[in-house]
From TrEMBL:
Gene3D superfamilies: 3.40.50.880. Keywords: Glutamine amidotransferase, Transferase. Pfam families: GATase. Residues 76-182 form the Glutamine amidotransferase domain. It comes from Planktothrix agardhii. GO terms for molecular function: transferase activity. It comes from the Bacteria. GO terms for cellular component: cytosol. SUPFAM superfamilies: Class I glutamine amidotransferase-like. This is Glutamine amidotransferase.
Length: 231
């Protein structure tokens, strides 16, 4: 059985099309939430790949949140040494960057990314992003590109939006797993006061309807590159 490990930072995280597309490819998904006490595997032998999802905490919170420290150490040792495909989404990307020695920090002018924002591929990123395209963001922090990594896409607010380290490890600042039901739930439970200057809820939902199909198609193409090319 082909298994992919999902590392969640909140048990209620909806993996959306990430889970759906991988299931369609025949992968069994195993979810672990270290914040809730789930241990991370000691090896990657039982898994074809791993994905670390987003969360409200910071990659810099390793002193007050032991599960952040544990995941940083796990990425540095278990994941990267295995040479198995790894994808970090939002916080997951920031954890990957931090584990590789790069800085994760708030925007110097205090700006945030909330809603759909355009990404521009770099020359190295043209094989992953064939044009400027829109993805969903909910970020108050960004990452530097780690030493030895390659930037794949840039943005107007946080310059670094995607990178590759080695052959198999990727980090993306955006949320390709976003679904409308999650946005609607956040509309009921979150406020723009916590992260000002973001798009309104109506703009976010309208843009999601506009861009969701493109994002899902992009994700499917990315999985072909990320997984199929590493068999």
């Amino acid at each position: 059985m082909k298994k992919i490990l999902f590392v969640l930072h909140k048990a209620t995280t909806n993996p959306g099309p990430v889970a759906e597309l991988l299931s369609q490819r025949g992968y069994h998904i195993e979810k672990r939430t270290p914040r809730e006490g789930d241990p991370l595997p000691l090896t990657m032998d039982d898994y074809e790949a791993a994905i670390s999802f987003g969360g409200a905490m910071s990659a810099n919170d390793y002193e007050k949140n032991p599960f952040i420290r544990a995941e940083l150490d796990w990425i540095s040792t278990t994941v990267l040494s295995s040479n198995k495909p790894f994808l970090g989404i939002c916080l997951g990307a920031q954890l990957l960057a931090r584990a590789l020695g790069a800085t994760v920090a708030k925007h110097p002018q205090g700006e945030v990314e909330i809603g759909y924002h355009v990404l521009t591929p770099t020359l190295a990123g043209n094989q992953y992003f064939n044009s400027a395209c829109y993805f969903y963001h909910w970020n108050s922090e960004g990452f530097e590109i780690p030493s030895g990594a390659v930037r794949l896409a840039s943005g107007d607010i946080f310059e670094n939006q995607a990178f590759r380290y080695g052959k198999n490890a990727y980090g993306v600042q955006f949320h390709p797993e976003m679904v409308q039901s999650t946005l609607e739930r956040w509309q009921q439970t979150e406020t723009q006061v916590k992260l000002p200057k973001g798009q309104s809820w109506s703009e976010q939902i309208q843009d999601h309807i506009k861009y969701a199909t493109f994002v899902e198609n992009w994700l499917n193409d990315f999985f072909s590159c990320w997984l199929d090319d590493n068999k």
